[in-house]
Specification:
Layout: H1 3-9, E1 23-24, H2 26-34, H3 36-44, H4 53-70, H5 76-86, H6 95-116, E2 122-134, E3 137-148, E4 154-160, H7 175-188, E5 192-199, E6 204-209, H8 215-231
Parallel strand pairs: 1-3, 4-5
Antiparallel strand pairs: 2-3, 3-4, 5-6
Helix pairs in contact: 1-8, 2-3, 2-8, 4-5, 4-6, 5-6
């Protein structure tokens, strides 16, 4: 289902029924569109999905890259030192698994460092938060990295740590980066010309230009989800999503529990 089809299938509440504002992020919007009940247990009941080897590795790499660029370091040795300091020990079934995943992260960061040697842009911000209004609501997010290009324009970059990336399957409408592009302009006064998913395990960059004429549908989706979240007394499970849900074995509404 496209963004437009989802918005059309979920009508806006009457104007007079709109509640006081709430705050939404890309992750919250994605969870609500995926399954309103999954949104509830994650963001209302504050359930946390257990760490897995891929998620622990991703968190470790994100933290290491943030620290590396914040201190404006320039050596591979320092990057790997920070990786050790930022390593997340939870989420691994055995010590051997942890060693194997740690080695994968080491290789990823070496690939990243070699790729960065050819960078011509200037990193101007890492882990930069934005906040902008949506009628009575607000949108918040955290951008992994913003670069200033040689032409003076800005590029929003989101790190992806998948070992076997399939860009064509991930966020096909580029919602996350479209939200981030709006946030960079509206909250940070940075006019972005490019939105990039950076698959650092392989050095692959998937870049799309900013399309101002399509921002209206993104804003409409954010407002619609915020309205529905604010008005919801109950959150309907979307059971077709159960097989892909992190909480499928613990959620009371799950139809895909392991037997």
């Amino acid at each position: 289902m496209t963004l437009r089809e989802w918005v059309d299938a979920h009508p806006a509440p009457p104007r007079q029924a709109r509640p006081r504002g709430v705050e939404v992020s890309y992750s919250q919007v994605r969870a609500y569109v995926f399954c309103p009940w999954a949104y509830k247990i994650r963001y209302v009941d504050f359930w946390r999905a257990p760490l897995t080897p891929p998620s622990a590795l991703g968190l470790s790499i994100h933290r290491a890259l943030e620290a590396f660029h914040r201190e404006d370091s320039s050596t591979l040795e320092r990057l790997l030192e920070l990786y050790e300091e930022c390593w997340v020990h939870a989420g691994f079934p055995t010590p051997q698994d942890q060693l194997e995943w740690h080695a994968k992260g080491d290789r990823i960061l070496k690939t990243y460092f070699a790729d960065e040697l050819n960078r011509r842009s200037e990193i101007v911000s890492v882990e930069r938060e934005f906040l902008f209004p949506l009628g009575p609501h607000q949108a918040r997010g955290m951008i992994d990295r913003i670069d200033r290009r040689t032409d003076g324009s800005y590029e929003v970059i989101d790190y992806k740590t998948h070992l076997d990336p399939h860009p064509e399957l991930e966020d096909p409408e580029n919602l996350q980066l479209r939200i981030y592009g709006i946030g960079a302009r509206e909250s940070l006064a940075m006019e972005c010309s490019r939105l990039t998913r950076y698959y650092i395990a392989t050095g692959l960059r998937v870049t799309t230009p900013v399309e101002p004429d399509k921002e209206g549908e993104v804003i409409e989706l954010l407002e619609r989800v915020a309205d529905l979240v604010a008005l919801s007394r109950t959150f309907k499970p979307e059971t077709s999503a159960c097989p892909r849900c992190d909480f499928r074995n613990s959620c009371q509404s799950s139809t895909a529990r392991a037997t």
